[in-house]
Amino acid sequence: MSEAQGHGRGADGSAKPSKRDALIEAAFELFTAHGFEQTTVDDIVRLAGVGRSSFFRHFPSKEDVVFPDHEGCLAEMTIFLQEGSGTEDPVIRVCDAARLVMRMYAGNPSFAVQRYRLTKSVPGLRHHELSVVWRYERTLADYLRRRFAHRPDGTLRADVIAASVVAAHNNALRTWLRSAGQEDPSAHMDHALRFVQNSWGPEGEARSADEEDTDDVVVLITKRKAPMWRVVRGIEATLDDR
Amino acid sequence: MSEAQGHGRGADGSAKPSKRDALIEAAFELFTAHGFEQTTVDDIVRLAGVGRSSFFRHFPSKEDVVFPDHEGCLAEMTIFLQEGSGTEDPVIRVCDAARLVMRMYAGNPSFAVQRYRLTKSVPGLRHHELSVVWRYERTLADYLRRRFAHRPDGTLRADVIAASVVAAHNNALRTWLRSAGQEDPSAHMDHALRFVQNSWGPEGEARSADEEDTDDVVVLITKRKAPMWRVVRGIEATLDDR
């Protein structure tokens, strides 16, 4: 889903800006010039040259015009999670689902950065954004709950992992937005999501041939009753020492 | 902070219901009878027998009267996190901070359950609640960012752990609320937070004397390049086999 040419998903597939695009463009021009609170829907439709009913056909509220692509991205994420064969590693699957959100932002960096600055300065928009983020998190958690249904603590595990993935995603997204969209978004995202995957145990980690070549063996001796975190720390210390 | 006797924190410390308590009580009576959207601030002040300006002295908005104790709880959490000596295990510290929120709910079960049902049915309240939850999460994350400032990925680690703790807390809280406040809230909370602590490695885990008695040794042999989750799974399998 490339956003580089605008936000429209016109039924005719034409590159010509749609009414929806015109409304978004007009809204951001006014928000930037006069502030979000000071701009009315009437101001937006007047500048865009479309009727008031057109606005509400595309956006339930003035807040929604600031986040025009999230509905589409949520739908895309839902389909992506439904489409799996059910044998994929669930943690990797939700990480890949989260990447769809970053891809949406990265498809239109200047818009993403403009919106980031606007959202930071308007509490009402910040609240609206939280409800969008919550819907992504619910979508990921619902998928994980299904996948973990047979496990003890399946719901708890699902909720905690979904929250971890969203937090890691948002950390990487903010880092990229603060670079004014100049840095490589996928490098930040890969790093943050790998951090989560390492905590929760992804299946099917690919290993390259040269890793195989340097493979060797670690012997760890620990007290049986040592807590797991202490064992892990011991292993990490050993593995780092190479 | 016991809430069992009401929500008031009158300057005189008296048990007599304050104007604030009267407003909360009137608001919930009206919300339950007529619905949240259908009730106005004027309706609330009329039933409570106080002036309109009293309402706005205590609550910025109609939404805030539904969550009357969160400001106090946030302040308590902030102080608790500041008061540490700086040597506590940071993960255990944020888990204990999260317990303050549960304690607030558990102090007044019937009010907590009533609010849970109301919030579930009114989208505006759900959004308001998300912004409250977000402030708790930011408070925990800010503390962890300070504690992890010297670590690589300190900010990422802080954000992910704070989100994990909040998700685990909310999972336990919802389980308790769905039991209509009948079950033991701390048992649910201990279980959920232990799940997070086991993932992130709490320091200072207490070990009882009889655990010491059964102490013995595990030898694990693993390939050096094996991913950490596979090593952990191997250890878990070994430890379970007793």
From TrEMBL, chains A, B:
<dbReference type="InterPro" id="IPR009057">
    <property type="entry name" value="Homeodomain-like_sf"/>
</dbReference>
<dbReference type="Pfam" id="PF00440">
    <property type="entry name" value="TetR_N"/>
</dbReference>
<dbReference type="InterPro" id="IPR041347">
    <property type="entry name" value="MftR_C"/>
</dbReference>
<dbReference type="GO" id="GO:0000976">
    <property type="term" value="F:transcription cis-regulatory region binding"/>
</dbReference>
<dbReference type="InterPro" id="IPR001647">
    <property type="entry name" value="HTH_TetR"/>
</dbReference>
<dbReference type="GO" id="GO:0003700">
    <property type="term" value="F:DNA-binding transcription factor activity"/>
</dbReference>
<dbReference type="Pfam" id="PF17754">
    <property type="entry name" value="TetR_C_14"/>
</dbReference>
<keyword id="KW-0238">DNA-binding</keyword>
<protein>
    <submittedName>
        <fullName>TetR family transcriptional regulator</fullName>
    </submittedName>
</protein>
<feature type="DNA-binding region" description="H-T-H motif">
    <location>
        <begin position="40"/>
        <end position="59"/>
    </location>
</feature>
<feature type="domain" description="HTH tetR-type">
    <location>
        <begin position="17"/>
        <end position="77"/>
    </location>
</feature>
<dbReference type="InterPro" id="IPR050109">
    <property type="entry name" value="HTH-type_TetR-like_transc_reg"/>
</dbReference>
